Amino acid sequence: MTLIRKPAQLEVPQTVKAMVYGQAGMGKSTFALSSPGPLLLDFDGGVHRVNLGHQTDTVPIHNWQEANEVLREDLSSYKTIVVDTIGKMMDYIILYVCRGGIPQRNDWGRINQEFSNFTRNISALNKHVIYVAHRDVRKESDDNVFIPALREKSYTAIVTELDLLGYVEAKGKERTVTFDPTSRNDGKNTCNLPGLMNIPTVVDAQGNAQPNTFFRTHIIEPYIANQQKRVELSRAYDAVIEEIKENILLITDELSANDFIKRMIKFEHVGNSNVVAKNMLTSKAKELGLRFNEENKCYENK
């Protein structure tokens, strides 16, 4: 039995691994908590800054062992794990791996592996995970590029594990998030989310909490729907390619080749299946010793 899977045979991801980052005061924590059924792992001790109406069940984390112990508890009532902040979490991992010392060159592999294992363990529990990060700046020639505040030796390993990386900022009183990488910010958008989305105000002028569901309705649900659509398209593509192959096998002469040309437009083509059909026909005609008459647009014996 083969372990190889065609794209249409792959399972549709039901969980999302994301990170949002931005300056202090952007409401990143509240934004992350707009995910479905969140449990907050508070590494920064900043849950008190979240409006009372938007606070959720919280685990104050003081060391890396506590973070791993949480995942062994009964988390069945939660759908999302929110880590605030990932920078502080990575500091705890470094303390754990290096036993309080300065990380050496050989330590970074294990440090990054601890993060990867943590992320995958959350996904294995069928939970979304959202990391919150502060903003840092990377200098590129004369330009400043905004990036999550993470140690350089961990940055690539962390972003590789993510499905989405979003930058949150404010223009006046309007907050926006983009998951697209641009010349001014890092990003990761694997499901064609809109280039720029407005984040709604969830606390009114009197300080009253308003519904907080944006991450669920505008990011997680569209992401999963997009992945499902991709798999369905792959299945439809595989089905039409199989149908084309079966019809190509029936071509034995110029008559059946020309009949295939007439029927080719009737296939429910997906993606480049029409091009694949033409290439298969060309190969079959060559195999049978047929040539294509450009003037009559049909095959004939040489």
Write up this protein.
This protein has helices at 28-32, 64-70, 86-98, 108-124, 152-160, 214-249, 254-264, 273-288, and strands spanning 17-22, 38-42, 58-60, 80-84, 128-140, 143-148, 164-171, 174-178, 188-189, 197-199, 290-293, 298-301. By secondary structure, the protein is of the alpha/beta class. Strands 1, 2, 3, 4, 5, 6, 7, 8, 9 and 10 form a 10-stranded mixed β-sheet that branches. A two-stranded antiparallel sheet has the order 11-12. The longest helix has 36 residues, at 214-249. The protein is elongated. The mean pLDDT is 91.
In summary, what is this structure?
The protein is an alpha/beta fold and 302 residues long. The chain contains eight helices and twelve strands. A hairpin with a 4-residue loop joins strand 11 and strand 12 (298-301).
Keywords:
10-stranded mixed sheet; 38% helix; elongated; alpha/beta
Structural class from helices and strands? alpha/beta
Helical proportion, percent range? 25-40%
Average pLDDT reading = 91
Shape: elongated
What portion of the residues fall into strands of 2 or more residues?
15-25%
Topology at a glance:
Blueprint: E1 17-22, H1 28-32, E2 38-42, E3 58-60, H2 64-70, E4 80-84, H3 86-98, H4 108-124, E5 128-140, E6 143-148, H5 152-160, E7 164-171, E8 174-178, E9 188-189, E10 197-199, H6 214-249, H7 254-264, H8 273-288, E11 290-293, E12 298-301
Parallel strand pairs: 1-5, 1-7, 2-3, 2-4, 4-5
Antiparallel strand pairs: 5-6, 7-8, 7-9, 8-10, 11-12
Helix pairs in contact: 3-4, 4-5, 6-8, 7-8
